[in-house]
Design goal:
Oxidized Rhodanese, domain 1; six-stranded mixed β-sheet
Amino acid sequence: MIIEQIYLGCLAQASYLLGSHGEAAVVDPPRDVDDVLELATSLGLTIRYVLETHLHADFVSGHCELADRTGATIVISEKAGAAFPHLGVKEGDELRIGRAVLHILETPGHTPEGISIVVTDTDVSEEPCAVLTGDTLFVGDVGRPDLAGSRGYTAEQMASLLYDSLHDRLLKLPDEVTVYPAHGSGSLCGRSLSKETFSTLGVERRTNPALAPMSREAFVKRATDGLPEVPRYFPMDVAINRAGAPALAGRPAPPALAPDDVRRRTAEGAIVLDVRSVDAFGAGHVPGSVNVGLGGQIASWAGALLDPSVPLIVVAADAAGVAEAVTRLARVGLENVEGSLDLDAWRASGGPLETLAQISAEAVRERLAELQIIDVRRHAEHETGHVPGALRAPLDRLESFIERFGLDPSRETAVICAGGYRSSAACSLLARRGFTRLANVTGGTASWRAAGFPLAFPA
């Protein structure tokens, strides 16, 4: 039997190709399905099923396009309310590909319709060899239970269901069963996911803090305390996935826009999204542009920061960068790219450029008393130590913190994150809010630590 993991680091998202005797099933496919199709072809597999473990909130799935291009049947929980043609499944149902059996477990908790898929390779044994757990069980963590609030469930109710799914279903499987989750470290569908992308039930039973012996009440409290805010694009992606996303294949590239057209569109409300590196953005960018670089988790951060109804104009290092940005944005449902802008053409037309100062950790320490310092890392990161006097304003909630802290747009402000990526995005947002004396801390808190400078901790 073949089990191939297809991992997108940008979204910390794992899809799977399962194959046996020339037949295949794809589980939780990415939005852009070409790589999946190429892999299946290279392995001599015909895709019979496309399975979704749940309605994903953090990315848009390519299940409809994959089914259209292969003739495969889409399989999802009968509780999902899916609006596309599909086979609805429930606890105990089975599918077969070649000589492999895919057994359905209902595992609600992260979402009401969540399922896990137990895999048995009958060429080897009648005992299960793997389980694809979706967002129910991760390596080192479990799924967060607060993403179904819009469907009438409280986080506490979902956490109680999650407790049952783990203890009454998944943990009944043998220790040697391999665990293949839908996400790894960096995903907002959990809190403390491991960098490892697969494990075994035995290892998770021994090492996963969420599976340590505890009462239901203690588990519910642990699962619901201190959860990060739900990103703005999550409900949108659930709705897209329930309806079925349109195909990406064959779409034309966004047009290259003339500078005068860009000026007109931005005056009407469009945003220039600059996806170049922090250094390139700092050296010169279109005034008012937002920097979310291709070198990081552009999809999730763009989804969290940008209004999907506002048109985007992409600035990238080259045409390949524009194409990559369009694809990665589409993975979270941002399909509002109206065109691209070439910076050389912008300069040639007399278009102004702004710069963003870069400041070292050493310079920040020397000027600690005079700078307004904003730390845009998440709460849990801030608690591990921060620059003394830094105000915590997580990037995804930055604008709401401006008034809360009474931040002064005219004061010299240094913005810091872990390494400089998020802080550059934050600087670009602050500039749009009238901050005129901004500096991005190069190397972020990592540089501050490496220099041996003192850290402050929450009281």
